[in-house]
Write a structure and sequence with these properties.
The chain is α+β, with helices and mostly antiparallel strands. 44% of the residues lie in helices and 14% in strands. The strands form 2 sheets. Strands 1-4-5-8 form a 4-stranded mixed sheet. The relative contact order is 0.09. Bound molecules: flavin-adenine dinucleotide (FAD). The site of flavin-adenine dinucleotide has 19 residues, from strand 1, strand 3 and helix 11. Pfam families: Acyl-CoA_dh_1, Acyl-CoA_dh_M, Acyl-CoA_dh_N.
C-alpha cells in the first residue's frame, strides 16, 4: 500500500486524473481540513488594531506559510512546471493548476507568497537573466524568500507612469534609490521587493522607468505600518533613502521598466482571480445549509447567481490554462473575481440577516471580514475602472 505522506515523485507520462488522485491523497494525509482548529486558509488577511499587533500577525502568517511551502517543496508539489535548474520539475503547466485547485479545498494558503510564486517568475522569465532566475527562484519554491511589490506612490497609483522614486547609478556599480512607496502588502516580512523607479527624467514618463530587485533588509529601507480609515492596520508605507541595488539587480535594460511592469501586472491580475473568494458560491451554499434556509426562494436565487459567476470564472481560467488566446485575460479575470467577491459577500449578509452584525460569531465573522475586504479587492492589482479600460481598449479594440 503506497504511503500518501511520501513525496509525489515525477511520472512525466501520467494523465491528469491519475495525477489529481495522487495529489488529493497527499493533501488528505498532510493538510488540515477547512474549518478545523489548524485551518490557516485566511492567514494572509492580516488586519490588526495596533502596529505592534500587525507586525506580530504578519510574522505569524509568514512563518506558517513558509513551513507549508517547504512541505509542498519536499513533497515535490512546488513549481511542478518550473524548469529543474530553477528548482522545479519541468512538468506540464496543468500540474500546477491541479495543485492550486486541490490546495484551495483545504485549510491552507500560500497567498503570503503570491508575489514570489506568481509574479517574480513571470517577470524573470520574460525579462530577467539566467543568473537572476537561478539566484532568486529556487529560494521562493523552498519557502525561504518572501517578496513584496514596491509600485504605488502617494502621487502614482492607477497612473504608474508618474512614479517619482529615483534610482541613480553609483560609482563602483549599482544604484542608489530614494523615494516613498505606499500600500505595500507584506513589506515587513519580505526579504526582497520588485521595485519600479525612475532612472530617466520626469518628462520621459513611462520611458524613464526601470524595474529592480531590491533587498529589503538594509538601512535605507524604512517600513511603517499604515493605519486605515477603519482604524485597522493592513498595509505599509515604505521610505527609501539611499537604498542600494547591486548592478545585477536591474531587470532588463534601463528604461525598460514599463514593459516589465506590464508583465508583472498581467500575472498579478490573473493570480488574483484565483484567490480564496473564487470559491464563494460553494461556501455560500454551506452557509445557507448551516442556517437551514437553503430552500428559501430568495436565497436560492442568490446561490444560483453566485454559482453562475463562479462557473464563468472557472471556465475563463480553464481556457487560459489550456492556452487559448483570451484577449485582456488578466483584466477580465481580475474584474470577474472582484465582482464575485463583492456580490457574494453582499449575498452572505442577506442570508445572515441580523446575524451579519455579530462580529464574534464563528459563522458570521468570516463573511463580515470578506464584506469589509471586498472594496479593497476592487482596488488592489489595479482598480475595476482600470480593468474596464484595459478590456475596452485591448480586448474590444475600442478607442481610448
Ligand atoms: C488590498 C490591496 C493591496 C495592495 N497591495 C499593493 C502592493 O503590495 N504594492 C503596491 O505598490 N500597491 C498596492 N496596492 C495599491 C493599489 O495598487 C492602488 O491602490 C491602486 O492601483 C489604485 O491607486 P490609488 O489608490 O492611488 O488610486 P487612484 O489611482 O488615485 O484612483 C482613484 C480613483 O480614480 C479612478 N481612476 C484613476 N484613473 C482612472 C482612469 N484612467 N480611468 C478611470 N478611472 C480612473 C480609480 O479607479 C479610482 O476609483 C494595494 C491596494 C489594495 C487595496
Amino acid at each position: 500500500m503506497p504511503n500518501p505522506a511520501a513525496p509525489v515523485s515525477d511520472r512525466p507520462a501520467e494523465g491528469r486524473s491519475e495525477f489529481q488522485a495522487r495529489v488529493h491523497e497527499w493533501f488528505a494525509a498532510n493538510a488540515p481540513r477547512k474549518g478545523s482548529p489548524e485551518d490557516f486558509s485566511a492567514v494572509h488577511i492580516v488586519s490588526a488594531a495596533t502596529a505592534e499587533e500587525y507586525r506580530a500577525q504578519e510574522q505569524h502568517a509568514i512563518s506558517v506559510t513558509r513551513a507549508w511551502q517547504r512541505r509542498l517543496f519536499d513533497a515535490g508539489l512546488a513549481g511542478r512546471s518550473w524548469r529543474p535548474e530553477y528548482g522545479g520539475h519541468g512538468a506540464p503547466d496543468w500540474q500546477d493548476e491541479v495543485v492550486i485547485e486541490e490546495q484551495a479545498r483545504w485549510g491552507v494558503s500560500t497567498k503570503m507568497f503570491a508575489v514570489g510564486l506568481e509574479m517574480v517568475p513571470a517577470v524573470l522569465f520574460g525579462h530577467g537573466t539566467h543568473e537572476q532566475r537561478a539566484t532568486f527562484l529556487p529560494p521562493i519554491l523552498r519557502g525561504e524568500h518572501s517578496w513584496c511589490q514596491l509600485l504605488s506612490e502617494p502621487g502614482a497609483g492607477s497612473d504608474l507612469a508618474n512614479v517619482q522614486t529615483r534610482a541613480t547609478p553609483v560609482d563602483g556599480g549599482g544604484w542608489s534609490v530614494t523615494g516613498q512607496k505606499v500600500w505595500t502588502s507584506n513589506a515587513g516580512c519580505s526579504e526582497y521587493a520588485l521595485l519600479i523607479a525612475r532612472t530617466g527624467s520626469r518628462e520621459e514618463g513611462r520611458a524613464g522607468l526601470s524595474c529592480f530587485l531590491l533587498d529589503m533588509a538594509q538601512p535605507g529601507v524604512d517600513i511603517r505600518p499604515l493605519r486605515q480609515m477603519s482604524g485597522a492596520y493592513h498595509f505599509n508605507e515604505v521610505f527609501l533613502d539611499d537604498a542600494h541595488v547591486p548592478e545585477n539587480g536591474l531587470i532588463g535594460a534601463p528604461g525598460e521598466g514599463w514593459a516589465v511592469l506590464r508583465t508583472m501586472l498581467a500575472s498579478e491580475r490573473a493570480a488574483i482571480g484565483g484567490g480564496t473568494s473564487a470559491r464563494s458560491a460553494t461556501q455560500l451554499v454551506g452557509l445557507a445549509r448551516t442556517l437551514g434556509c437553503d430552500g428559501d426562494p430568495v436565497v436560492r436565487d442568490l446561490l444560483a447567481q453566485a454559482a453562475i459567476r463562479e462557473r464563468t470564472l472557472d471556465l475563463l481560467r480553464a481556457r487560459i490554462a489550456a492556452g487559448h488566446a483570451v484577449a485582456a485575460a488578466g483584466p477580465t479575470t481580475k474584474l470577474l473575481y472582484s465582482e464575485h467577491a463583492r456580490l457574494s459577500a453582499d449575498a452572505a449578509t442577506t442570508i445572515l440577516g441580523m446575524a451579519a452584525t455579530v462580529v464574534d460569531d464563528e459563522v458570521s465573522a468570516p463573511w463580515i471580514e470578506r464584506l469589509l475586504f471586498a472594496p479593497g479587492l476592487r482596488l488592489g492589482g489595479g482598480t475595476d475602472e482600470i480593468q474596464r479600460n484595459a478590456i475596452a481598449e485591448r480586448g474590444l479594440g475600442l478607442p481610448r
